[in-house]
């Protein structure tokens, strides 16, 4: 302690603030991870105030040690004391209480309210209207709908930059799959928050409000909007006009199953139904009845498909998104896109075209759109049918980073058609020349791509992560196959889904590719030729390739595409990556037979004529004699594993 006595007060306060920052971060992470009320606010205060008189005096007189206000039932009594100690410092307030008495202490006192920099409010649904009223709206009666709230005075929250509102759902409410919250945040409330840059809404609708018109300059400060609507089903609603009203300033947008009132993309003649929804929980039903029902359904399905293909249009109830009165330019543009998709279908087909035929489906043309001219980051989480309308309706000329998480039903052919339509819209968002209506301000192609294909029984997925030449991420796509609900595992190769997305991405400038395939398993249904066809013609600039988690026999079919008319062997195939200079094989399982080793060496030599370096990492059971054979494949061989 003698040394600390010599430390000046200002230096000691900096140490205190740094210590408090880590403790505060731990508290907030606990609240987010385990729910409101689970953390211990102000648990760090006794550490400083109970050491000595000097430390206590410094701590009590430093406003920046107290301006992180946490309102809980335990801290409500000390709230006024904490507020006084903040003096004139900006306030970061977090409220997790059902009663409004403590919150009103800040609402009703101008000296506190004008200093609030951020609000994180979590309230039950029946108290949400009161919160809106105190934030700046008034209504004729206490129980009035939030959409009818009228604005009070302007500038009530001049320092507020971040507002996070969450309607805490009851257990029964959170289990509902359909419907939307009764409460809504009116956009014209932002007139009371001229400096707000971050708006987050959880289980809360976003509406324009009932006031006549919204002045654009009054909402230009909002740069980030986050809306969370639950899992899979969109229980939160907004509309494109409301989104476009704040679009002049919006730079980041995160949507978690938020509905826009758009028709979902449904394949004509194919009625989507979640497997098991109308089936009994037990499996004691009659197999004969199930067989008869299946035959009837297949017959009706065939008739519907023939009718839709013969007319070229689906029913109005099919909600494909093709509207009457579209411009001829739009029609021609999408017709060309359909033609392009037709060519891609030959490369994206599954290995057995008899069991998985390829169908042609119409493109999704939205009836209305919203342009967000400054948006550079979009994160969206939806089911596949709902993701397509959102991407189609949002015009994002400045988009640089696109992150999508898609729930996908994988084995049906119409579902694969929906995936192709999603891939087409992803390509339009990233490729500057993809469409007439969008032009990217950052037209840099992808140079680095990570493709992770995992086929675990409960949650198989395909994950993409692409970056530009500066290794700045531009696209992240997680395709989660929802077979955790299905009765049967996915039968289609996982590479089929990956190939569909690869065909739509701007990969002509790709220089490095990483394939993480360790989740395929020993007995998994694999189709390396699907990936080979998708990358063939796109890998002319690729110099670095890393493959992990497969058997060595997977490599020839990945690196070589057979000539047309060949007997199916890859000995004389076309190299998929002819300019490859470095090949990294990690956790690749090699066969022990001499014949298999010899064939693999021949395939690698044919597929990689310019290979400079072959790097083996943690390859189990690698025979020592095979290392000598591989030395002739590349100019240099690096082995980071112990040969068997």
Question: How does this structure look, described?
Answer:
The chain is of the alpha/beta class. It has a domain at about 385-640. Mean pLDDT is about 75; it is low at about 135-155, about 170-180, about 210-215, about 270-360, about 435 and about 565-570. The protein has 19 helices and 27 strands. Helices cover about 30% and strands about 20% of the residues. Helix 19 links the parallel strand 26 (about 615) and strand 27 (about 635-640). Keywords: Signal.
Quick recap:
This protein is α/β, with parallel strands linked by helices and 644 residues long. The protein contains 19 helices and 27 strands. The longest helix is centred in the first third of the chain and has 26 residues, at 9-34.
Q: Which key phrases capture this entry?
A:
signal, alpha/beta, 644 residues, 17-stranded mixed β-sheet
Terminal Cα span: 60 Å
Shape: globular
Number of helices: 19
Q: What does the largest sheet look like?
A: 17 strands, mixed
Q: What's the SSE blueprint?
A:
Layout: H1 2-5, H2 9-34, H3 45-49, H4 53-61, E1 68-71, H5 79-85, E2 91-95, H6 101-107, H7 110-113, E3 116-124, H8 128-135, E4 137-138, E5 150-151, E6 162-168, H9 171-174, E7 184-186, E8 198-202, E9 205-207, E10 224-228, E11 236-237, H10 240-245, E12 252-256, E13 258-259, H11 287-311, H12 328-348, E14 370-371, E15 377-383, H13 384-393, E16 394-395, E17 401-408, H14 413-430, E18 448-454, E19 461-467, E20 473-481, H15 494-504, E21 512-519, H16 528-535, E22 544-548, H17 554-559, E23 560-561, E24 574-575, E25 582-586, H18 594-607, E26 613-617, H19 624-630, E27 636-640
Parallel strand pairs: 1-2, 2-3, 3-6, 6-8, 7-9, 8-10, 10-12, 11-13, 12-15, 14-16, 15-17, 17-20, 18-21, 21-22, 22-25, 25-26, 26-27
Antiparallel strand pairs: 4-5, 18-19, 19-20, 23-24
């Amino acid at each position: 302690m003698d040394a600390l006595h010599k430390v000046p007060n200002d230096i000691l306060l900096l140490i205190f603030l740094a210590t408090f920052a880590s403790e505060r971060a731990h508290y907030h992470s606990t609240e987010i991870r385990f729910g409101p009320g689970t953390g211990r606010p102000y648990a760090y205060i006794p550490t400083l105030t109970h050491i000595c008189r000097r430390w206590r005096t410094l701590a009590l007189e430093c406003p920046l040690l107290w301006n992180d206000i946490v309102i809980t039932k335990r801290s409500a009594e000390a709230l006024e004391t904490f507020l006084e100690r903040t003096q004139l410092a900006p306030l970061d307030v977090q409220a997790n209480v059902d009663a409004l008495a403590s919150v009103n202490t800040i609402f009703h006192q101008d000296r506190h309210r004008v200093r609030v920099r951020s609000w994180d409010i979590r309230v039950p649904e029946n108290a949400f209207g009161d919160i809106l009223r105190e934030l700046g709206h008034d209504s004729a009666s206490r129980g009035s709908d939030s959409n009818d709230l009228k604005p009070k005075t302007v500038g009530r929250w001049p320092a507020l930059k971040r507002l996070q509102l969450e309607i805490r759902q009851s257990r029964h409410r959170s289990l509902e799959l359909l419907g939307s919250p009764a409460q809504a945040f009116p956009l014209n409330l932002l007139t009371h928050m001229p400096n707000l840059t971050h708006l987050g809404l959880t289980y809360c609708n976003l509406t324009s409000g009932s006031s006549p018109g919204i002045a654009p300059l009054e909402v230009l400060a909002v740069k980030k909007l986050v809306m969370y609507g639950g899992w899979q089903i969109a229980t939160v609603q907004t509309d494109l006009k409301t989104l476009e009203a704040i679009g002049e300033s919006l730079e980041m947008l995160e949507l978690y199953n938020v509905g826009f009132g758009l028709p979902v993309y449904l394949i004509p003649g194919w009625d989507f139904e979640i497997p098991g929804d109308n089936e009994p929980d037990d499996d004691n039903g009659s197999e004969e009845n199930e067989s008869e029902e299946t035959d009837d359904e297949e017959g009706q399905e065939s008739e519907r498909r023939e009718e839709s293909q013969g007319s070229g249009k689906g029913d109005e109830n099919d909600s494909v998104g093709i509207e009457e009165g579209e411009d001829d330019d739009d029609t021609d543009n999408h017709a060309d896109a359909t033609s392009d998709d037709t060519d891609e279908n030959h490369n994206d087909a599954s290995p057995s075209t008899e069991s998985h035929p390829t169908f042609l489906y119409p493109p999704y043309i939205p009836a209305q759109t919203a342009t967000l001219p400054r948006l550079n980051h979009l994160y969206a989480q939806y089911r596949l049918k709902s993701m397509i309308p959102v991407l189609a309706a949002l015009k994002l000329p400045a988009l640089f980073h696109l992150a999508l998480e898609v729930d996908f039903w994988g084995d049906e052919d119409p579902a694969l058609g929906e995936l192709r339509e999603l891939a087409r819209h992803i390509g339009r968002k990233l490729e500057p020349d993809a469409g007439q209506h969008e032009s990217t301000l950052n037209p840099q192609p992808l140079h680095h791509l990570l493709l992770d294909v995992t086929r675990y029984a409960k949650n198989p997925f395909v994950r993409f992560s692409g970056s530009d030449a500066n290794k700045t991420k531009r696209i992240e796509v997680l395709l989660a196959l929802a077979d955790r609900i299905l009765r049967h595992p996915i039968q289609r190769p996982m590479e089929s889904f990956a190939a569909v997305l690869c065909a739509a991405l701007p990969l002509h400038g790709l220089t490095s590719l990483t394939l993480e395939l360790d989740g395929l398993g020993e007995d998994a249904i694999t189709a390396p030729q699907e990936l080979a066809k998708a990358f063939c013609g796109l890998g002319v600039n690729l110099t670095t390739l890393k493959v992990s988690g497969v058997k060595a026999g997977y490599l020839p079919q990945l690196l070589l595409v057979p000539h047309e008319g060949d007997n199916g062997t890859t000995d004389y195939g076309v190299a998929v990556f002819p300019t490859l200079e470095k090949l990294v094989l990690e956790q690749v399982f090699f066969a022990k037979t001499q014949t298999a080793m010899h064939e693999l060496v021949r395939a690698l030599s044919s597929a990689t004529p310019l290979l400079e370096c072959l790097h083996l990492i943690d390859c189990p059971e690698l025979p020592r004699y095979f290392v000598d054979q591989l030395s002739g494949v590349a100019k240099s061989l690096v082995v980071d594993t112990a040969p068997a």
